[in-house]
Amino acid sequence: MKSIQEIRSSLTLEEKASLCSGKDFWNLKSFESKGVPAIMVADGPHGLRKQMESSADHIGIGGSVPATCFPTASAMASSWDTQLLNEVGNALGEECRQEHVAVLLGPGVNIKRSPLCGRNFEYFSEDPYLGGKLAASLIRGVQSMGVGTSLKHFAANNQERRRMIIDAVVDERALRELYLAGFETAVKESSPKTVMCAYNKLNGAFCSENHRLLSEILKEEWGFEGFVVTDWGAVNDRVAGLNAGLDLEMPASGGYNDNLMVEAVQNGTLSENSLNDAVDRILKVVLETHTALQEEFTYDAAAHHRLAQKAESESAVLLKNDKLFPLNSEDFRTEEKHGSQEHKSPKLALIGSFAKEPRYQGSGSSLINPRQLDSAYDAISRELGGDMQLLYAPGYDPADEEPDSRLIQEAVNTAAAADTVIVFAGLPEISESEGFDREHLSMPRSHNDLISAVAQVNPRTAVVLSNGSPVTMPWLDSVPAVLESYLGGQAWGSAISDIIFGRANPSGKLAETFPLSLQDVPSSAQFPGGSASVVYTDSLYVGYRYFSGTGKPVLFPFGHGLSYTRFSYDGLKITGRGTGRTVQCRITNTGSRDGKEVIQLYVHSESSSVFRPEQELKGFSKVSLAPGEEKTVEFRLDDRSFAYWDPGAGDWMVESGNYEIRIAASSADIRLRETIRIDSTQTPSQWAADLRNRIPEFFSPAPELFHDISPESPFRKLLGRPIPPPHWDTREGFTRNSTLEETTRTFIGRILYKAVMREGSRMMSQDADEKSIAMMQAVIREMPLKNLGMMGGDKISMHTVDSLILLLNGKIIRGLGSLLRRK
């Protein structure tokens, strides 16, 4: 096999530039005669979404090959189990091998800044330490099979609204400590083959051409050796992107950007060394993954289904349980006596359409075509040996958020006739998806009203939730048990049955905070921002980092989760010197069932020059214990366990002082604590030393702090530069980054908008559901003009786009002339 250098040396300038963009939607270019094979990439991350070219798209509209649908990231993060994530990653790698897919596009490690982000179901956590560790484990599992991953979306892609053009305005500490930290962990600990840059701008520069992000931090500081690929259609300026460290553009650009790179090298505005570096990085991944795909491979679909069931069993979170779960299946079975059926016990009622029609995954580019699908109704029926003692009522129409009095009354009657009721509710598909954000935290009224009505007639009512992100629960006090299943994948029904009847002991814990109301969430003051920018005035105060320090109550805290057994914590012991500490404690199962407990370690700084969260997660461990068994759990702490980012020093800083080590069952349930002293040789910069005097407001944040983006605001002082305006200046005219929705201010824009919507509808299948249509429409509304070619294919070139922009700006003669001169 030829070396990378030999292959690159044999390529012409035009061929090297061509190699830096896709052949089509899912394939990279090849030059077989010169030793460059073809490889295919495909969407993930909780299952393989391999599309055929006849149905290629990047938002999940078209079909895909059958694959195992594992629980989404929001669910699996609640397992807090790195080994489990590694096993799932290994299975995903096997499925890629069978389907000859070289790179799986995932996982997503973006921070859940707001519970409203429409794509939160695809992300792990509000905490970068947890998210980074889980992502690293998944990546190692996938790549153990010789295929690659694409860590995404780099960086600060924390909303769907205007995600292709929004400028995320983030202060340096929040950027480093929250929004980059998970990526850093995953890159350093698992070496993903590729990193996918986000659509959005970060502090004024598109992520696809952000030199500091892609080259200085990712490649130079963190030592990333793979290639950087765009999110699909995320290129803004291709030459600027390559200079910044963007290696591969996806999908194909019809040769437009390839020609620009050739011209740039020829006129000296692009160094050929930069192009060569991109080519070398692409060739490295192509050759490594192509080798692994040479042999035929077949995975065990049944084994993967069992793993999907195990993953959901480990991930579901028992939020509340007042002596209702687990149920004894024997209590609900019938037995035959003298040739007739005799009721041995009362009946069990399953209420809610989700019991028979599961909501098991999110929508968009991660939409999996599952090999099989387990409903809770079928699984529970099997557990009971049939449905003789099983009642059912749909309770609501999944496609209608408004209550149906007839369906609710039917459910109430069914509940009244049963001994025990389980209501299956949550968020319908239309509520959360790639392409748009949620507007509130409420479940549909049809679900909330149903739960309240059923609980009034049957006090033994449990609720099983299916949703990708937090919801409010106005009925919480009236039900004895709540199980959060998140979006549990294709084996969801069997896993839920196992938990309900105690065959599996729930061990999941929340990887995000469930707030009482949206108004309590600091990011809500600036979410989703304006037409041009979104200002992260919440800085470090995301999730438990805010709630732990303010005493503001929450619905359920980060790290919370119950079990069918009990655990005691004792024997805290801390050894070592400086920041190199070993922390040990004993965990004992004091109950009567086998169980698993997630032990969490938080660090609290008792005094600091800079504002810091009340506590930060710096370690976790999941242990399995038999009744009466005890184990010693050990954590290793290092410099980063105590450090903050000092913008003045441009480095991580550990201050001298006292730090409390907290061992916890959740962020709000501290079981053991001990204070240690650290004497550091580092000295905070003047920036950090003066912070308390300059911006005292951030040391005890009040809600009004997060609303203020005035020129004299505390956040302006923290940011260290003027806050950009939230909205575009419409007087400047339309550009390539104007959205289709914005163009509807003009007559020509309205014609264009309708034409593109028609094309989007044409691409949809005949039986497209409301969710798919809404997602398609949201994507088109917010599509920048520069991305029209992604839907128009060969019909719309960048020359055509520029001609349309002239027309939109009222330059009719020039615009028409440009269109007529189109080659």
Automatic annotation (TrEMBL):
SMART domains: Fn3_like
Class in the EC hierarchy, top level: hydrolase
Entry EC number(s): 3.2.1.21
GO molecular function: beta-glucosidase activity
InterPro entries: Cellulose_deg_GH3, Fn3-like, GH, Glyco_hydro_3_AS, Glyco_hydro_3_C, Glyco_hydro_3_C_sf, Glyco_hydro_3_N, Glyco_hydro_3_N_sf
Family of the protein in this entry: Belongs to the glycosyl hydrolase 3 family.
Protein name from the UniProt record: Beta-glucosidase
One Gene Ontology term from the biological process aspect of the record: carbohydrate metabolic process
Residues annotated as domain Fibronectin type III-like: 597-667
Keywords: Carbohydrate metabolism, Glycosidase, Hydrolase
Pfam short name (any one): Glyco_hydro_3
